[in-house]
Amino acid sequence: MKDISEFDVDGRRVLLRADLNVPLEGDVITDDGRIRASVPMIEELVGKGARVVVMAHLGRPKGQPNPKYSLAPVAKRLGELLGAEIAFATDVIGDSAQAVVGALQGGQVALLENLRFEPGEESKDDAERAEFAAKLAAFGDVYVGDGFGAVHRKHASVYDVPKLLPHAAGRLVLAEVAVLKKLTDEPARPYVVVLGGAKVSDKLGVIGNLLGKVDRLLIGGGMAYTFLAAQGYEVGQSLLQKDQLDQVRGFLSEAVKRGVELVLPVDVLAATHFAEDAEYEVVDATAIPADREGLDIGPRTRELFASKLADAKTVFWNGPMGVFEFEAFSDGTRAIAEALIRAEAFTVVGGGDSAAAVRRLGLPEDGFSHISTGGGASLEYLEGKTLPGLVALEE
Ligand SMILES: Nc1ncnc2c1ncn2[C@@H]1O[C@H](COP(=O)(O)OP(=O)(O)O)[C@@H](O)[C@H]1O
Ligand SMILES: O=C(OP(=O)(O)O)[C@H](O)COP(=O)(O)O
C-alpha cells in the first residue's frame, strides 16, 4: 500500500475516509476514541497545507437522512481536538457539500454529513455505488483510506472512490494492519479469541474460519444466545439470530472435530426488560425464563472465562460481554477486560464499543498490547478474508 508521503498534497484537495462512528447518547459523544485516533493523520495533512475533506459514517441510517445520525456533534468534537473550526457540510454531495468544499483553503478541514444518508454508499448494486463514488471523488485530487473500522465494508467511500483517484493508505490503517499481522503470523499459543457484542449476524460469519486458527473461543454478550438456542435451550427475549441456528450447530460440531475449545456462558443475568434499572436474577444459561432477557454473563461465567484466559499467550477480544452501558450489566465486560490485563499475553481489544467499554469502566488502556479501532474489520482480517478497503488501497 502506498503511503501518503509519496504525494505532494500542498494546496491539493485530499479526500480522507475516516471511521468516526462513535457512541452517542442523544447528541453527546460518550467515547471519542475513534475521533482521537483519526486526528494525527488529519493534522499531518493540515501541516502539509492540504485542503482536507473528511468523509465518514455514523450508525446505520439505511440510506436516508436522519437527524439522529448526524455527524454534527462529531464535527464539533473534531474541531476541538484539532484546535480549529471544521467546515461542516449538512449534506453529503448536495449544495452544502459543494459550497463547503469549494470554499476550503489550504490547511483547512471540512467534514461531509453521514455518508450513509445516501443509498449509493452501501448499495449492493455496483453501478449505483460507482455513480455515488464519482460524485464523492469530484471533491478530491487524492484519496486517503484511513477508516480502519470500515475497511471490511464494500461501500462506495471505502472501495469505489479509491479506484477513481490516486490513493494512499492512512497512518491509522497502516498501524492497525501492522499489529494484526502479528496475530496472523504464528501467534504464541494458547491463542484465545473472545467474542461478544450485539452485531450477531455480522460476526457469527467469522467463526467458521477462526476455528481453523485459534485454540479457544469464548462466546459471551449478545452472541451467546444463538449458541444456547442451537443446543436446544430456551433463551427468552435475549438477542437471537434464528436464521443462523443451523450454521451455529455446524460451528459446534466443527469445534469438536478440530479440538477447539468453544466455551459458552454457564449463567447469565436475566432481566425483565432492556433498561438500566430493570430487575434481574442470576440464572443458569440453560434455564433462562421465557419472559426474560440475558443482559450480561453471570458470576460463574466470569470466573470460567477468566480461567480460560489465564494461561493464554495471544488474545483477541471483540464485543462486550453484556450491556456495559448499564452499570448493573457491566460486570461481565469488566471481568474479561481485567482477565486480559492480568494475562501474560499479547492482547488486542478491537471494536468501537469494546474500546469504549475499556475506557468507560476506568480500566488502564496501557494494560492491553493494542486497542484497535476496528471490531468487525479486525475479525475479518484475522479470519484471513480479503478486505475490500485494503484491496482498493493495494491496487
Ligand atoms: N446480552 C446482550 N444483549 C444486548 N446487547 C448486548 C448484549 N451484550 C452486549 N451488548 C451490546 O453490544 C454492543 C456492542 O456490540 P458490537 O457493536 O458488536 O461491539 P464492537 O463495537 O466492540 O464491535 C454494546 O452496545 C452492548 O450494549
Ligand atoms: O463500528 C464499526 O464496527 P465495529 O462495531 O465492528 O467496531 C464500524 O464503524 C463499522 O460499522 P458497521 O458495522 O455499521 O458497518
From TrEMBL:
Task: Provide this UniProt record's keywords sorted from A to Z.
Answer: ATP-binding, Cytoplasm, Glycolysis, Kinase, Nucleotide-binding, Transferase
Lineage: superkingdom:
Bacteria
Q: Which residues bind ATP?
A: 203, 294, 325, 351-354
Put simply, this protein is called: Phosphoglycerate kinase
In which pathway is this protein known to take part? Carbohydrate degradation; glycolysis; pyruvate from D-glyceraldehyde 3-phosphate: step 2/5
* Family, as annotated: Belongs to the phosphoglycerate kinase family.
UniProt-annotated location(s) = Cytoplasm
Q: Which GO terms describe its molecular function?
A: phosphoglycerate kinase activity
Q: Does the keyword Transmembrane apply?
A: no
Q: Which Pfam families match?
A: PGK (PF00162)
Q: Which PANTHER family match?
A: PHOSPHOGLYCERATE KINASE (PTHR11406), PHOSPHOGLYCERATE KINASE 1, CHLOROPLASTIC-RELATED (PTHR11406:SF23)
Q: Where does substrate bind?
A: 19-21, 34, 57-60, 116, 153
Gene encoding the protein: pgk
The reaction(s) catalysed by this protein are: (2R)-3-phosphoglycerate + ATP = (2R)-3-phospho-glyceroyl phosphate + ADP
Question: What interactions and quaternary structure are annotated?
Answer: Monomer.
The enzyme's main class, written as a single word, is transferase
Native organism taxonomy:
Bacteria, Bacillati, Actinomycetota, Actinomycetes, Streptosporangiales
Its EC number(s): 2.7.2.3
